[in-house]
Amino acid sequence: MWLDKGEWDLLKNEGLAGCLNAVVTQHWQNKIKQNSAKDNISEIYLAKSGEGTYSKIKELREWLENHEQKSDLRAYILAEDPYSAER
């Protein structure tokens, strides 16, 4: 296996030097890609909305996700006119 400059030091610093076989598995690599994608998307939301709005919407999302009536609340939020009987 060939490591680029600094990769061995990074593995040692992360405590992964003894787990090299696990690091090169497809599962591990997929996990790294998924985390990287999440970070990139988070940065996009932050850049588009600003720190205050992004922080507030993440808090709202977490609250809504744990609410027992989340489906009804989502429907209310997404409705053009939540008080109209028409769809």
Structural overview:
- The protein has helices spanning 7-13, 20-23, 26-49, 51-65, 70-78.
- By secondary structure, the protein is an all-alpha fold.
- The chain has a domain at 22-78.
- α3 crosses α4.
- The termini are far apart.
Task: Give a short overview.
This protein has 87 residues and is mainly α.
Q: How would you summarize the topology of this molecule?
A:
Layout: H1 7-13, H2 20-23, H3 26-49, H4 51-65, H5 70-78
Helix pairs in contact: 3-4
Order of helices and strands: HHHHH
Helix residue percentage: 55-70%
Radius of gyration, taken over Cα atoms and rounded to an integer in Å: 21 Å
By helix and strand content, what is the structural category?
mainly alpha
Oligomer: single chain
Tell the overall outline: elongated
* Fraction of residues in β-strands: under 5%
- Sketch the major β-sheet: none
What is the averaged pLDDT score? Answer: 89
CA distance, first residue to last residue: 60 Å
Strand elements, count: 0
Number of helical stretches of at least 4 residues = 5
Low-confidence stretches: none
What are the defining features of this structure?
87 residues; elongated; mainly alpha; 68% helix
